[in-house]
Sequence to fold (488 residues):
Amino acid sequence: MVTRGTLVAYAFALIACGSSSTQTDAGADAANTNDADVDAGVINVAPVIVDQGPAGVGAVNVLYTTITLCIPGTTTCQTIDHVEVDTGSVGLRIVSSVLDAFLILPAATAGSGNPLIECYQYADGYNWGPVVTADVHIGGETAASVPIQIAGGAASTPAPSACSSAGSEEDTVPTLGGNGLVGIGFQAADCGNACANTTTPRTGSYYSCTGTTCTPAAVPIASQVQNPVSLFPSDNNGVAVELPAIDPGGAATVTGSLIFGIGTASNNALGAAQIITIDATTGYFTTVFADQTLAASFIDSGSVSYAFPDTAIPQCTTGSLTGFFCPPTSLSLMATNTGQNHVSIATPFNVADANGLYGNGDAALNDLAITAFTPGYFDWGLSFFYGRTVFTAISGAMTPGGVGPYFAY
Amino acid sequence: MFAIAWGGPVIPNLRLLLGSYFEPYVKSPQGRASGHHLRVVATPNWVVQSAGHTQGFLGRAWLPTELPAGFDLDTVRAW
Fold:
């Protein structure tokens, strides 16, 4: 059993070294420890873990990795563990309170010359904080001068109403559920054209701020917070998340691999995986389940469970589990996922009693599902990833399976 | 108004849409549906769900006790 001690050792190895070549060795060593599929010398792998997260978080089905940030062009670096791995968002965000005082990262400015502060929305809330640049090391890969966000780092500049109206602020370790979050979804930049529009930049995204006054700012796509994968010198067309199968009752912790690139190395070939292409704007494909056509469906390592509409399966009715499915016996179900390329994948999955699953105290639960109160979608969250290799291809990137964006498994 | 639905590249201004229900919504504990692509707050009198991933958000809110008799809530949908 690999424990968190392995990740800590890995972190120290990265801290201790100054050059990219030794960091490559460190990453390969750690990968060897964590995943039998990884060969020595392979640099495109970062170990990932599903555990309870930073102290006090008590996470379930949250995937974490370790990232090293450096002041661009220097060896002044900090290694940060328990950064959430999210294929459902884009961009690296670090909670300001975990940053060491010595890691002074250069701040980005808006066209006005004022500090550039971003509001980044998730379905459940938002991050508010300045954009800075850093060299980003994940596994053995390095992306140089990446625009990232420091969540909660806007000092006394409050989030504008158009930002805070999205939900709850998630700029602390407990509210974010990690020390940071790395969004490695299907886009290269976290907003795109809507935020680059110089006439009417999107509200609720990027702001030029002076004092406590902020106005929406137009930000060129390359200056927006970036998917760090797309800035790697190679292995930059997408990712594969590889997690082992686990017991139906769950597992205390799970370790696996975040592999960079698709078809770029010996360890990331598509193989037998089938590709379903997705809408380039929304990232949606269609799931057909129980005679329902769910046209806003997506695969997402940042969701804890399956989420889908169903009125037949009994739901838990108690406290924090309200809405989760609680069938008296585990159910073997089948759905079909169809891409815009008309490829369909028959996809079996299981749903077990959430009450029983949570009762074990495990951090990894593979048969966990919650009802979708909103019709029209099926969210294939982290439950789906156990026992699979799931590929996410970045929009516009060439891969042996065609041009992204797509999912494949 | 007793039910709304939304869908699009950004989350709409929920403070405006939810009115007096917004503050209780954002202050409600996340429960076990943590992760950043789903938030559900279900009370006997009001329900809000926000879901989705980057550039593709969707959600619905409704007042269970205010629904007209026989009303099919599934007709309130953005997708």
Notes: Chain B touches chain A at residues 5, 7, 9-11, 13-16, 22, 25-27, 29-40, 42, 47, 49-60, 74, 77-79 (CB under 8 Å). The longest helix of chain B spans residues 22-27.
